[in-house]
Amino acid sequence: MAETTQKVALVTGGSRGIGRACAVALAENGFNVVLSFVSNKSAATEVEKTIQVLERDSLAVQGDVSNAANAQFILDETLNRFGRLDVLVNNAGITRDNLLIRMKDEDWQKVIDTNLTGAFYMTRAASKVMIKQRSGSIVNITSVSGIYGNPGQINYSASKAGLIGMTKSAAKELASRNITVNAVAPGFIVTDMTDGLDTTKVLEHIPLGRLGTSEDIANAVLFLVTSGNYITGQVLQVDGGLVL
Ligand code: NAP
User: What are the distances in angstroms from CA 48 to CA 32, 65, 95, 215?
Assistant: First the structure.
């Protein structure tokens, strides 16, 4: 196992969108970064190279976080390469939107498995390492949908609300080991996930008058992991003041 004193961050779903922005921001702030992806190898390789240009070490690992063995593999690869883990950002997530009465069982299950169970597998594996280190910071990317609910997103809202409950319980369990656990709840952020959505109506509900960027979310994550030593169990909404 390689040993290093350089701090190490692991971002799930770091190949695109918010995860990519988090991975790059963490690297810009001195972290070596492992980014996981599920299928988009070329995007992941591009992020890996971008981070290496910043003169930080980077590793892209393929794995489906909703599979317990894959999640453990991502953790093991991180430790094999860097020998430590200081930050986990549970960012990997998907949508399969539909109205409640039309929601298919597989679309319900897929979203819960990826967004909630995936974060559980990663958190369980990462916590074991952080407990031994007696330090660490975990940030879960939830959503305003998990706080307020959103029509057409019964599966997604449930997964993101579950993630908030998980954040608060994990924060209480891990605090005595000097590990913080927080959540960031983005509003509407311009990424592949929201590509194609008609945002005209949404914009009317955002007092700051614009959709969010992935960097807006990365800044909040960075704040929590670099300056948030005394913040745990919290949900930070980053949504331009969105009123749902
Ligand atoms: P995105 O652009 O669609 O990127 C999703 C990322 O997750 C990709 O890196 C993807 O990997 C990865 N991923 C998907 N399924 C996975 C799985 N089973 N295992 C491992 N990785 C997986 O999404 P985004 O908009 O950046 O969203 C990132 C997070 O923010 C999600 O949790 C989302 O729910 C949350 N969020 C987004 C918004 C928004 O407005 N965009 C708002 C609130 C919350 P590949 O590249 O390999 O496909």
Answer: 10, 19, 25, 17
45, burial (CB in 10 Å: exposed 0-12, middle 13-18, buried 19+)? middle
Q: Which of 136, 156, 137 is nearest to 147 (CA)?
A: 156
pLDDT for residue 182 is more than 80 = yes
Whether the pLDDT of residue 1 is over 50: the answer is no
In this prediction, residue 3 has a pLDDT band, given cuts at 50, 70 and 90, of: very low
Phi, psi of 67 (to 5 degrees): -110, 120
Q: How far is the CA of 84 from the centre of ligand 1 (A)?
A: 25
- Distance (Å, whole) CA 59 – CA 48: 6
Looking from the CA of residue 192, the nearest atom of ligand 1 is 2
* Amino acid of residue 165: G
Active site residue ranges: 156
Q: What phi and psi, each to the nearest 5 degrees, are found at residue 106?
A: -70, -30
CA distances from 102 to 112, 154, 178 (A): 17, 11, 44
Q: How confident is the model at residue 223 (pLDDT cuts 50, 70, 90)?
A: very high
Greatest extent of the chain over all pairs of C-alpha atoms, in Å: 52
Q: 20 with 46: CB under 8 angstroms?
A: no
* All residues at 6 or more sequence positions from 238 whose CB lies less than 8 Å from its CB, including other chains: 184, 185, 186, 187, 212, 216, 217, 220
Q: How far apart are CA 37 and CA 45, in angstroms?
A: 10
17 Cα nearest atom in ligand 1: 26
Q: Which of 18, 90, 96, 213 to mutate to test the pocket of ligand 1 (most atoms within 8 A of CB)?
A: 18
